[in-house]
Amino acid sequence: MEEIMIGREMNPKEMIPEEENQEGAKIFGKLAGASLLYALVYTGCLFENVMGLASVLWVASSVWYVRFVFRMFGEKERRDNGIVLGMIVLLGISTVLTGNEWIGWMNDLIIFVLLVGILLHNFAQDTGWNFGKYLAEIVAAVCGAVCFIGKPFADGGAFYRSKKTGESHAGWYVLIGICAAVPCLMVLVLLLMSADMVFADLLVRFAGVFRFPVKLLRILLMLVFGFLSSYCGVRYVQKHAADIKPSAGKTAEPLIAIAFTAPIAVLYLLFSAIQIVYLFIGNMQLPAGVTYAEYARRGFFQLLFVCVLNLAAVLFIQSYFKENRVLKALLLAISGCTLIMTASSACRMLLYIRAYQLTFLRVSVLVALAVIALLMAGVIAKIVKPQFPLFRYGFVLAGAVYLVFAFSHVDYFIAAYNLTHTSWEASGEETVDYSYLYTLSTDAAPAIEKYAGKSGAADYRKQGWYQLYCEANEEALNETGLRTYNVSHAVAKQLLMEDNRE
Description:
Layout: H1 17-46, H2 54-72, H3 81-97, H4 101-123, H5 131-147, H6 151-163, H7 170-195, H8 197-210, H9 214-240, H10 254-281, H11 292-320, H12 325-356, H13 360-384, H14 390-407, H15 410-420, H16 434-437, H17 445-455, H18 457-460, H19 464-472, H20 474-477, H21 487-501
Helix pairs in contact: 1-2, 1-6, 1-9, 2-3, 2-4, 3-4, 3-14, 4-5, 4-9, 5-9, 6-7, 7-8, 10-12, 11-12, 11-13, 12-13, 13-14, 15-17
């Protein structure tokens, strides 16, 4: 394959319009076909199918697409690309194994972020980038891709002119104008419909008279989005990544950070001492009239927010302020106190779970606290030893923890725990939240069936919440075909259909 060496001899910003047109024509000739093929696979796999087996094909096509882009522009792949691409593949596999749609949506979002990140990693000089820099550049790349929405049409026009010299281009210009107008019209129609109820009502009636195929429109929109997002994203990163300047480094005056962190460190040390004396060593002694559930509910989210702020603040100060022994000591004190706050927050959540049982959100929060604690441990290592590879450590750590979470079938453990544990604040009365159990995904089916066998299946399966659980997952249980096949749905279907036959 002929490599397209763009912007190597001349900065793209210094190119004259004719050279830019030639550049766009060359890129369009190779990238447009690949982007269209990727958009077709994306639409065919994910349309009304977030959790099905076809999503693995989309993930495989994503890996192929980014590697095609690297070869096309002559970019040598980095050694650590395998870690990111492997993580993308594992996320796609976990989607097919679980029935939890929240996990499926989070997997897709993380895959998208990783795809943008790996493009930046290979096109830009990212040596020394930290978490904040990467996050800022990923956001900039997404916004830049939106700003590049006209690029496919400009590149396509240049490509057409290069192939059809001396001929009239009127038809091509009209086609470009129509293609560019379609997404603009869609946005404008939505805005005008929301701005005027009369206009919206008339438009809805008009669409009803002609019975416009809404499903076909959604497919076309998804296809357009797949093409534009891939093409425009690659074009933006390819054109601007080389111009991204590396981090300025540690240039800020440390006295500013010392004056800022010193009173905060004193406050945190006092708070941490109270947590150790009264919450940990004092066997969780609480003020009179305050229950454990109330104590956990009031303090948990505040502490979680403070822990996230502390992590971000320490990372920022450690990255941009000059080395100073006093500042190091203060950052270590704040980091240590953050670990104590994280432990306190986890204890409060565990108390809350004992009182009100498990939910998906509560489990997710515990996982987030574990990640914060492990990242803070890495920050401490970075403060003590500046050569510590904090970004690589944090990326691998967060990725590994999330993959374990994604593969764990968390709804199974929620159902198993909630069906066998009742609140210790309920004076011995059963307080299982059945209204939450029937909202769980098909991942919970094996745990529910296991409990049913111990409790007497015949009576158990007549309970209202059990019937509601079956009805809530009816759509997943009735899925047929290879494209929408999901392992969790198939397992639950076998278990629940056997119940119905009994």
